[in-house]
Amino acid sequence: MAFAMAELQDISSVESPSSWEEFGRYGLCFLGMIAMYDPPRDTVFKALSTMKTAGTGDLQNMEVEKERDQLSVIHCEKLNTLSDQEWDDILKQKAVVFARATPSHKLIIVKECRRRGEVVAVTGDGVLDAPALKEADVGIAMEAVGKHAFLRYSFSQRT
């Protein structure tokens, strides 16, 4: 995450920059950068296992499917370079984890799933997840801040 500052006379005229080039128009001065790491919780792997084994109740078929299934992990930094065919191949898999997903990555994933006719549910935990929550068929805001953002956007598109 990068930090910068600028002196502004009237903050009401400030818009969020949509590209690195636009940052210059505010005369921002770079202050520094920090890195954050959010490791998966210990319970994630059990939750993935539970999701993978949940299903139809047809235990014989589930055991065969369980052996064939492989969990695919896609690093989200690659999302912008994927072709339509690569998206098709990824989304045909039974179990996919999108790793290191930012709010903008979540929106891309939701849009790609919906383009292929999938019904999409998204959970989010902050204001930045609001676009993905809005785009999804079902959006679940996990914290109050995200809930307010979601409620502001919600249900205007799909009823």
UniProtKB/TrEMBL annotation:
Keywords: Cell membrane, Membrane, Transmembrane, Transmembrane helix. GO terms for molecular function: ATP binding; ATP hydrolysis activity; P-type sodium:potassium-exchanging transporter activity. One of its GO terms (cellular component) is plasma membrane. It is a multi-pass membrane protein. Gene3D superfamilies: Calcium-transporting ATPase, cytoplasmic domain N, HAD superfamily/HAD-like. InterPro entries: ATPase_P-typ_cyto_dom_N (IPR023299), Cation_transp_ATPase_P-type (IPR050510), HAD-like_sf (IPR036412), HAD_sf (IPR023214), P_typ_ATPase (IPR001757). It is found in: Cell membrane. It comes from the Eukaryota. One of its GO terms (biological process) is potassium ion import across plasma membrane. This is Protein kinase domain-containing protein. It comes from Gongylonema pulchrum.
